[in-house]
Structures are given as C-alpha cells and as structure tokens.
Amino acid sequence: MLAVASVTVALNILLKGRIYEHLKPQSRPRRWVLVSMLLLFTVFAVWFPVWMSRPQSGIAKLLTVVFGLVFFVVGMALKWFTPSVDRYVQRKGWPLRYAF
Q: Where are the domains positioned within the chain?
C-alpha cells in the first residue's frame, strides 16, 4: 500500500494534479528527482519478484547488476551531482520547478 501511495503521489506531482497545486512553488520537488526515483522503483519492481522466485537464474543475476547500477547512479546523482544536474537542466532550458 505504501508503494502504491508513493507512486500515486509522485505521478500526481509530475502530472501537475491536485496535490501539486497545493504545494508552494518553492517547496515543489525537482522533476528530475521524481523521475529518477520512479525509475529506481520500476527497476526494483521488476528485479525483486524475479530475484525472490529464482535467485540463481541468469536473468536474476543480470537484473541484480542492472538494479545495482541504477541504484548507484540515482544515489550519486542525488548526493553529489545535484548542482551539476540542476545546471544541465537549466542550460537545456527545462524548468527545475514549474511555478504556475
């Protein structure tokens, strides 16, 4: 239920739904952070059932490597590369947060 609620809230914010309208412009999350977290959750949702049912299979090992790489990249982007990603997004002309 927590996963469903988290994905629902993240999608509502990304699609500028009712929850998004109630947030103050300065407290709205960056869109790239929500997208990266949803990507990580999607990879986890694919990897975990395969890993639980057949942990020694080749596909489980491959998905484990993919999950580890995605987890590492998202973690490093959030921890160390946030200013760089923000500059890149702004240089491309994409808004970090939508103010309307």
A: 2-92
